[in-house]
Design brief:
The chain is α/β, with parallel strands linked by helices and 201 residues long. The chain has a single domain, classed as Isochorismatase-like (Rossmann fold, 3-Layer(aba) Sandwich). The protein is built from nine helices and six strands; from the N terminus they run βααααβαβαβαβαβα. It has a six-stranded parallel β-sheet with strand order 3-2-1-4-5-6, sandwiched between helices. The longest helix is centred in the N-terminal third of the chain and has 14 residues. The radius of gyration is 16 Å and the shape is globular.
C-alpha cells in the first residue's frame, strides 16, 4: 500500500500525564503500566515524520468533566474499575489531562468522555475539514479506546492503520486477542513499518 502524507493523520488515544506520568492519577495510585509508558517514545518518530511531510497529529485525551463543586462526572462502571479517581483527575486544562511531553504538541486536541475518540467529539469534523483519507491509530488501551475508535472509523468509511506495537493493554493476552479481532476492520503494522511506509511516500 501507499500513503499520501498530506491526506494522513496520526491519532493517539489517551497518551496523557494522568495515565503515564509518575505524578499522574494512575502513577500516584500505583496503577501505571510500563507497557503503556513505552508507547510515546515509539510513536514520536512517526509523529515527527508525518508532520514534516505535511500530515497532522491529533491527540485524543480522556477527560473527566468537573461537576458542581468540582467533583468529576464519572460513569458508574469507571467508579467501580478505578475507585482512586477523584477531584482534579483528568480535568480539562490540568497537568494530568495534558498530552505527555514526548509527543507534545499535537496539531489538534480532542477531549473525549468515553472510549471512542469519535463519540460526541469534533474528531470527525477535523478529519473531514483536513481532507484526511488515512488515519493511523495508537494509544491505550488496545481493547478499549483504541478498538472503539477503530470500529467507529470503520463505520464512517475512514481507512485506518493500527499500530500493533503503538498500542498497549494491561494484559498482553488481551492486546493480542484484540489485534486478532480487529484484523478485518483495520490494516495493522508496527510503528517502524508505518514510518518506512511514510518515508517512501
Amino acid at each position: 500500500m501507499s500513503l499520501s502524507p498530506k491526506r494522513t493523520a496520526l491519532l493517539t488515544i489517551d497518551l496523557q500525564n494522568d495515565f503515564l506520568h509518575p505524578e499522574g492519577a494512575y502513577g500516584r495510585a500505583g496503577q501505571a503500566s510500563p507497557l503503556a509508558q513505552a508507547l510515546p517514545g515509539r510513536i514520536a518518530p512517526l509523529a515527527a515524520a508525518l508532520k514534516e511531510k505535511g500530515g497532522i497529529y491529533v491527540s485524543a485525551q480522556f477527560t473527566l468533566v468537573p461537576g458542581p463543586g468540582g467533583e468529576p462526572l464519572i460513569a458508574e462502571h469507571l467508579k467501580k474499575l478505578r475507585p482512586f479517581l477523584g477531584r482534579g483527575d483528568f480535568a480539562p486544562g490540568s497537568f494530568g489531562n495534558a498530552l505527555v511531553d514526548t509527543l507534545a504538541p499535537a496539531d489538534f486536541t480532542v477531549e473525549k468522555v468515553a472510549y471512542s475518540a469519535f463519540y460526541q467529539t469534533r474528531l470527525e469534523y477535523i478529519l473531514r475539514a483536513m481532507k484526511i483519507e488515512t488515519l493511523i491509530v495508537g494509544g491505550i488501551v488496545t481493547n478499549g479506546g483504541v478498538a472503539s475508535t477503530l470500529r467507529d472509523a470503520h463505520l464512517r468509511d475512514i481507512h485506518t492503520i493500527m499500530l500493533t506495537d503503538g498500542c498497549a493493554a494491561f494484559d498482553p493476552k488481551v492486546h493480542a486477542a484484540t489485534l486478532l479481532s480487529l484484523a478485518t476492520v483495520t490494516e495493522q503494522m508496527t510503528c517502524a513499518e508505518a514510518l518506512n511506509l511514510l518515508e517512501a511516500a
